[in-house]
Design a protein that fits this description.
Rossmann fold; 5-stranded parallel sheet; about 45% helix; zinc ion binding; amino-acid biosynthesis; EC 1.1.1.23; Hstdl_DH; Histidinol_DH_monofunct
Length: about 425
């Protein structure tokens, strides 16, 4: 099900080539269909959105708006223990993200110069939440709470309804707990179009965040520039780096916790111990028997899972930095000793008792993370995602007079005489 390779082998090179291609090329017919949906919603607004929602989700839907009564009713359909778990997660997420807040600042100089920076939350942010079987209330918290901490004025959520026209109650409860302001029953590329262009019912937003299928991803890509987006998310991935102290039972469970997401998900173990590698293989075979998403896990591990044996933790860290995984577990005698060497990872989990699902649900750091190697240049979703900054400048007459000739010189060199003139006319 999952093979063991020497990290420096030819077979390893082939695996990494296959890993890079796993998402495949975007099919032209999908791109064409998305562009048609975007155009239709832009021109026909609510009518187009309702038509698509009736076609793909619920044939009898009459209104896109989720009412307060529906939210209240959702609480009656979930148990109190689940609600308490969400509230604890919310508290931890707020605590972590409060530390990320940017502050406005001001600087003054003796010659009458005042400069500074303003920091503001965005006015309207749209959150896309998948529906159907992929109901992830944790993602609602992870997307909405940083926006709330950033003081976004309006948080708007879109999610597809079921065939009965209702939203999954766990999603509605999570949205209410997270402080979402508006919720609409629409999914797919049409939801992205409604957020980007605006309709009679759904006002346009400034930024769109949240995961979705290939139609959602392509739609986000195509509206970028008109609105901002968080990222184009790829399949989920985990890399576990372990020395001989690693527990095979724990590691096998952690690898499968990501493999169950998607047949394209990748789960990789890099270890200095051949004995541990073999034990993890055996543990996977044993534990998978009782897991509900067994078929997805098997397919994922068969095509994109791998165990690599390396000669040292240093070699393993180099390999991990090259892969730049979404989730990186470091299980070693002293994980903090190696933390500073990790350059490229979405989120880092240290030690045997910090499994990846802890980050997904409860710890506090965000679980919306860069994938497909983009951790080399992207960061996790954060408060920073939902703010904008403006600089400001004040110069007195004397202060401008001190530098006027230098400004004119640079402007003249660039051939921008009107720039130079703007300074000259003042003196």
């Amino acid at each position: 099900m999952i093979d063991i390779l020497k990290a420096s082998s030819k077979e390893a090179e082939k695996y990494f080539e296959n890993l890079k291609k796993r998402a495949g090329s975007i099919q032209q017919d999908v791109e064409k269909a998305v562009l048609e949906i975007l155009k239709n919603v832009k021109e026909n607004k609510d009518k187009a959105v309702l038509d698509y929602t009736r076609k793909f989700d619920c044939k009898t839907i009459e209104s896109l708006i989720v009412t307060k009564e529906e939210i209240k009713g959702a609480y009656e359909k979930v148990d109190d223990e689940f609600i308490e778990a969400l509230k604890l997660a919310k508290s931890n997420i707020i605590e972590f993200h409060e530390k990320q807040k940017n502050k406005a600042w001001i600087m003054t100089k003796d010659n009458g110069v005042v400069m500074g920076q303003l920091v503001r939350g965005l006015e309207r942010v749209g959150i896309y939440v998948p529906g159907g079987t992929a109901a992830y209330p944790s993602s609602v918290l992870m997307n909405a709470i940083p926006a709330k901490v950033a003081k976004v004025e309006k948080i708007v959520m879109v999610t597809p309804p079921g065939k009965d026209g209702n939203i999954n109650p766990v999603i509605l409860v999570a949205a209410d707990i997270a402080g979402v302001d508006e919720i609409y029953k629409v999914g797919g590329a049409q939801a992205i179009a409604a957020l980007a262009y605006g309709t009679e019912t759904i006002k346009k937003v400034d930024k769109i965040v949240g995961p979705g299928n290939i139609f959602v991803a392509i739609a986000k890509k195509n509206v970028y520039g008109l609105v901002d987006i968080d990222m184009i998310a790829g399949p989920s991935e985990i890399l576990v780096l372990a020395d001989e102290t690693g527990d095979a039972k724990f590691i096998a469970a952690d690898l499968m916790s990501q493999a169950e997401h998607d047949k394209l998900a990748s789960a990789i173990l890099v270890t200095t111990s051949k004995e541990l590698a073999t034990k993890v293989q055996d543990e996977i075979e044993e534990q998978i028997k009782s897991l509900s998403r067994k078929e997805i896990i098997e397919e994922s591990l068969k095509n994109f899972g791998m165990i690599f044996v390396v000669d040292s933790l240093e070699e393993g860290i180099k390999l991990a930095n090259d892969i730049a995984p979404e989730h990186f577990e470091l299980i070693a005698k002293d994980p903090f000793l190696h933390l500073g060497k990790i350059k490229n990872a979405g989120s880092i989990f240290l030690g045997s008792y910090s499994p990846e699902p802890l980050g997904d649900y409860m710890a506090g750091p965000n679980h919306v993370l860069p994938t497909s190697g983009s951790a080399r240049f992207f960061s996790p979703l954060s408060v920073e995602t939902f703010i904008k900054k403006s600089s400001y400048i004040y110069y007195s007459e004397a202060a401008l007079k001190d530098v006027k000739d230098k400004i004119i010189k640079i402007a003249d060199e660039e051939g921008l005489t009107a720039h130079a003139n703007s300074i000259k006319v003042r003196f």
